[in-house]
């Protein structure tokens, strides 16, 4: 583990929040390995802990929330970093974009100022260079008439354009790792499509790694190289996108894929997952998914399955993953 | 993160979760209403009995609040005044609360011209200082509690109307209001059965403050001789009784004043707590 | 037109909303700014079908849904329900109409009155419309809860005690209490998690079969619309740009916008990914819709005629209509031949 020094390596990441009903583990022992230049999809439903995982990586969980675990970026331990170092890292080598750009952008500053601010913080450029670079960045993220729009305020941009502005600000520091928290969820489908394609181009251009948090399996299928599925704060399955989509080994992954309509079977029953995701403060014993799982046995009710590799590059946390995979092949 | 709860919180949980201000205010108000309803149980003397042997006595064990210039026991008078002052708190405000809330609900739901007209009425009324307007109306109608209630009623409803109209405007944009309309319910049912119960919080909270204000107003008018008439025991009247003896017999005015402060505090604390409680419950 | 057995006929319906405008600019003689939410919608809904209405934000699909149940009254045009103009219904007749045409709302949190238990919510609907005599109301409530697969003890609970998916079931039960003919579902599942969406969609499909409901399913999610609709209408800037049987629309869209919309929806098959964005540019402001074809600012095939003349919704195949000057445009064709179609059209136009 320690031999790998490039990319992002996460071991045993936990995030705990105090609630009136006792401590709730929003993220519970997450391991991730993200290679340079890779687009990694973190999929889950609301409350699965996918967004908190992303924030915990950057130690952006506010007290009284607590974060534990090891996060190594290019061989350096983010968890042990001094606040000053960490601040340089955030928005520098590691940048983040959010679902709602309006809350992440400062409404009273023109976008030029916000981009140049980031350039000043993370580069040695002088004033003139910064101006030129800000213009260049708006161009790169595909904002038409960039020169004119630089002096406009965030509210003058449409949702999609605002998202582009936020990406431009994130790119100002030429990051090597981009953390994206559902950046396209609030956008229309044609705009989402544009932004996803833009992210792929930028990944190539800046040779960054991207961790993309989303609930939309279609987005994962069209964007990511590898993926992890989260349920109730834990990763239940990982692998390359094409393998996981072809043969899911966890019943939850299988259920998620079945819940989305595929063309060609119109007006038939969807393979839904019964029940609702559990609250974090009242997780079921054993495997958190067992009350909703058609494969569940007594073992699942007693013991929690660990995330274990079963093939090169594939891991799953399920006692019955082979039965699940076979069921998928039969279907 | 939504947590699906299986059962409703139990009663002791609810009491435990109440804001401290609401509990303290509630205790003060409960005690005030008990005194208002059963003053004779707590007052050691007849509040109107003259005792020429004990004129202007300073507080002693026999007369903890002292006596006035007729030898009347101040403690008994302050206690008996609870009956009138709590009555003022409730009676002066109850009609404005109901009328204002209902008008506000209709105005907020109707919007448009109705709302514009209502807005002008509100502006016209609140341009004048509240007390000055009440005094003007009472001087036309003549002094006395009933006329004071009428005077307050003419003005006070606009505050409730304004609060409720604003809240109804928020509620009527929510989908459940549209759902009611699509269900084919009459507008009256949508407004009064569905929207109003969800829009009453601000008016309810303001009502608590308003009752404290009503007591202040009642006392002010009593002091000026426009409200409750002597020899009735009312805090404002009692303070006025003591005004000539302020330097020699401070207790005549001070204790009724303290009663006003404490009761007003009770209403305010309870109102604050209620606001917090209603806000956090959802 | 309206005698052809259609249950609801929408004829040339338009709806504007005044945009916020200062009194000063009004005094300065600037024209009244208005958002044109609907611009001349024509639509027929047949008994028993599911009509999907799909489009991006601001296309007017929700406004159309609200016009269908008379939450909005159109500024122009008429909506006929069983050949009667619903705009003229008053009092009891209007309530009777609303009993038969019901709506289910998008937001599971705001669409239920937080202060009513499920029982009171349902019994109110049943009593106001006198659906059942007093004595049978409790039995009917149990039936309704069973119908939407909620446990019977749900009746005594308040909305906040349910999850989002369960609340949508309550909303459906409330609508079904009136035994309507038509259900208008506005983004019914878009606020729900994927696994819960499927449950609610399955429920809707089952109920439709059991109760032979006509459903208008308004959504932005193409996959869902494709899954449950018999026919689909694609809307753009307050107009229907294409309407067709579901299969025809998804296999050979005849409008460039429909094609862009289909291409933009991320495919669930990782092998089918592309690096080319499906549509360029962004939606023009609905305050300022371009002349000619509303899609001309983003259409890769647009030619001069598209900027001057607005295309009408014309037949392409049985039941298939599209509003595009490129009458031969078809989504199934390779890109080059569509470009050739565009070239040819330009030539013809000059001649």
From TrEMBL, chain A:
Major subcellular location class: membrane
GO molecular-function term, one example from the UniProt record: ABC-type nickel transporter activity
GO biological process, one term: peptide transport
Claim: ATP-binding is one of the keywords in the record: yes
GO cellular component: plasma membrane
Topological relation to the membrane, as annotated: Peripheral membrane protein
Gene3D superfamilies xref list: P-loop containing nucleotide triphosphate hydrolases
Reaction(s) the record says it catalyses: Ni(2+)(out) + ATP + H2O = Ni(2+)(in) + ADP + phosphate + H(+)
InterPro entries noted in UniProt: AAA+_ATPase, ABC_Ni/Peptide_Import, ABC_transporter-like_ATP-bd, ABC_transporter-like_CS, Oligopep_ABC_C, P-loop_NTPase
Compartments where located: Cell inner membrane
Keywords: ATP-binding, Cell membrane, Ion transport, Membrane, Nucleotide-binding, Translocase, Transport
E.C. no: 7.2.2.11
Domain ABC transporter: 8-257
Listed Pfam families: ABC_tran (PF00005), oligo_HPY (PF08352)
Subunit relationships: The complex is composed of two ATP-binding proteins (NikD and NikE), two transmembrane proteins (NikB and NikC) and a solute-binding protein (NikA).
Xref: PANTHER family: NICKEL ABC TRANSPORTER, ATP-BINDING PROTEIN, OLIGOPEPTIDE TRANSPORT ATP-BINDING PROTEIN APPD
NCBIfam families: oligo_HPY (TIGR01727)
Protein name: Nickel import system ATP-binding protein NikD
Species for this entry: Pararhizobium mangrovi
UniProtKB/TrEMBL annotation, chain B:
All copies of domain ABC transmembrane type-1, residue ranges: 82-271
Gene Ontology biological process terms, A to Z: peptide transport; protein transport; transmembrane transport
Signal peptide interval: none
Main subcellular location of this protein, as a coarse class: membrane
Pfam families (alphabetical): BPD_transp_1 (PF00528)
This protein's UniProt keywords: Cell membrane, Membrane, Peptide transport, Protein transport, Transmembrane, Transmembrane helix, Transport
Membrane topology qualifier: Multi-pass membrane protein
Compartment(s): Cell membrane
Stored Gene3D superfamilies: MetI-like
Keyword Glycoprotein recorded: no
Keyword Nucleus set for record: no
TM spans (from-to): 20-42, 88-109, 121-140, 146-163, 203-228, 248-271
InterPro entries per the UniProt record, alphabetical: BP-dependent_transpt_permease, MetI-like, MetI-like_sf
GO cellular component: plasma membrane
Assigned protein family: Belongs to the binding-protein-dependent transport system permease family.
Protein name (database record): ABC transporter permease
UniProtKB/TrEMBL annotation, chain C:
Broad class of the protein's primary localization: membrane
SMART domains per record: AAA
CDD domains cross-referenced by the UniProt entry: ABC_NikE_OppD_transporters
Membrane-protein topology: Peripheral membrane protein
Gene3D superfamilies membership: P-loop containing nucleotide triphosphate hydrolases
Span of domain ABC transporter: 8-262
GO process terms (BP): peptide transport; transmembrane transport
SUPFAM superfamilies: P-loop containing nucleoside triphosphate hydrolases (SSF52540)
Top-level taxon: Bacteria
Cell location: Cell inner membrane
One Gene Ontology cellular component annotation held by this UniProt entry: plasma membrane
Classification via Pfam families: ABC_tran, oligo_HPY
Keywords: ATP-binding, Nucleotide-binding, Transport
GO molecular function: ATP binding; ATP hydrolysis activity
Family membership: Belongs to the ABC transporter superfamily.
Protein name: ABC transporter ATP-binding protein
